[in-house]
């Protein structure tokens, strides 16, 4: 019978990659071979530290000993709700990430107090920045800030960031490489603010508006006015009507449309009305309806038959329904 010792390095590395960081370090003490594998660059490309309340000393050790130039993406928690004595993300740590991890492309911050962390301290190599339940200072994303900050940033996810408001949305225009924007639960953004913000973000190719107070109709109207090159739209169906959906007809670049429930109102377009609008979207290739309760029903059959050129996905909301950014 084969044992772990008989497995090739590539298989063991794949197995080790599923272990939490703490367990990876522990298994490095098993034998010289496992220590060598735990030191492998491949194993430290993507690191998730959200499982731990990480003391600054331990975080600095991981940064110097294991991550450094190997790191491509990092998920870390800030312990916003862990008490006043909990460790905090610091500007020094953010600057060190930029200096010691030149290949870091994606940074996901969870439940972090960033009010004392200037955006200028974030690694300039970032292409994706995700903020989940984070506190930011009012000055973080305003237009008046240094326009050279995060010059490569292509995607920003703002999920339940209570301070984010209309002024911040308009301030995103300084990220000239930005192509993807996800707004989740940003309840301070108004319909007027969204329209004004998208007017200056006409180069976006992907927009997701999820769990906000904005109506779907007003969101789609702003999209149709200002985002003519958008390729992917994902939004909750709150306030969606057939006339509201019809404003997307003729959108020249739209390839993927996702409508998420579970809130369905009497104004919600019928399957036939959705089909009619989708047939008028020349580039549409993916239609996803999630959480509308239409799976395995006549609605699904109508859409699949009427859109043979599209991948039609009709499914229930996943258990992790708040993971909008995945």
UniProtKB/TrEMBL annotation:
Quaternary structure, from the entry: Interacts with SKP1 and CUL1.
Q: What is this protein called?
A: F-box/LRR-repeat protein 12
Q: Which residues form a coiled coil?
A: none
Domain called F-box: residue spans: 1-47
Q: Which organism is it from?
A: Panthera leo
Q: What does this protein do?
A: Substrate-recognition component of the SCF (SKP1-CUL1-F-box protein)-type E3 ubiquitin ligase complex. Mediates the polyubiquitination and proteasomal degradation of CAMK1 leading to disruption of cyclin D1/CDK4 complex assembly which results in G1 cell cycle arrest in lung epithelia.
Q: What keywords does the record list, in alphabetical order? A: Leucine-rich repeat, Repeat, Ubl conjugation pathway
Quote the InterPro entries the UniProt record gives.
F-box-like_dom_sf (IPR036047), F-box_dom (IPR001810), LRR_dom_sf (IPR032675)
Write down the superkingdom of origin: Eukaryota
Q: Which PANTHER family match?
A: F-BOX/TPR REPEAT PROTEIN POF3, F-BOX_LRR-REPEAT PROTEIN 12
Q: In which pathway does it act?
A: Protein modification; protein ubiquitination
Q: Which GO terms describe its cellular component?
A: cytoplasm; ubiquitin ligase complex
| Pfam families membership | F-box-like
Alphabetical GO biological process terms: ubiquitin-dependent protein catabolic process
């Amino acid at each position: 019978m084969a044992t772990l010792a008989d497995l090739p390095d590539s298989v063991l590395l794949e197995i080790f990659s599923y272990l939490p960081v703490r367990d990876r370090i522990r298994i490095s003490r098993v034998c010289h071979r496992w220590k060598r594998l735990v030191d492998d660059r491949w194993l430290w490309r993507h690191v998730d530290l959200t499982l731990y309340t990480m003391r600054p000393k331990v975080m600095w050790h991981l940064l110097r000993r294991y991550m450094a130039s190997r790191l491509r993406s990092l998920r870390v928690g800030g312990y916003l709700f862990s008490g006043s004595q909990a460790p905090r993300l610091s500007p020094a740590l953010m600057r060190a990430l930029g200096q010691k991890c030149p290949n870091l492309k994606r940074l996901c911050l969870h439940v972090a107090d960033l009010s004392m962390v200037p955006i200028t301290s974030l690694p300039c190599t970032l292409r994706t920045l995700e903020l989940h339940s984070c506190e930011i200072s009012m000055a973080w994303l305003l237009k008046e800030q240094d326009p050279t900050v995060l010059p490569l940033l292509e995607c920003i996810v703002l999920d339940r960031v209570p301070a984010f408001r209309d002024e911040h949305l308009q301030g995103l225009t300084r990220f000239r490489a930005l192509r993807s924007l996800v707004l989740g639960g940003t309840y301070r953004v108004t319909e007027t603010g969204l329209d004004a913000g998208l007017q200056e973000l006409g180069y976006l190719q992907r927009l997701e508006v999820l769990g906000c107070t904005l109506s779907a109709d007003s969101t789609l109207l702003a999209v149709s006015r200002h985002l003519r090159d958008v390729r992917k739209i994902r939004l909750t169906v709150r306030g969606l009507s057939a006339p509201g959906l019809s404003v997307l007809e003729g959108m020249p670049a739209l390839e993927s449309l996702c409508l998420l429930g579970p809130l369905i109102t009497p104004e919600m377009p019928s399957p036939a009305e959705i089909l009619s609008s989708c047939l008028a979207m020349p580039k549409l290739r993916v239609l996803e309806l999630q959480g509308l309760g239409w799976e395995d029903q006549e609605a699904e059959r109508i859409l699949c038959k009427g859109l043979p050129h599209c991948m039609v996905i009709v499914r229930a909301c996943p258990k992790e329904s708040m993971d909008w950014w995945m």
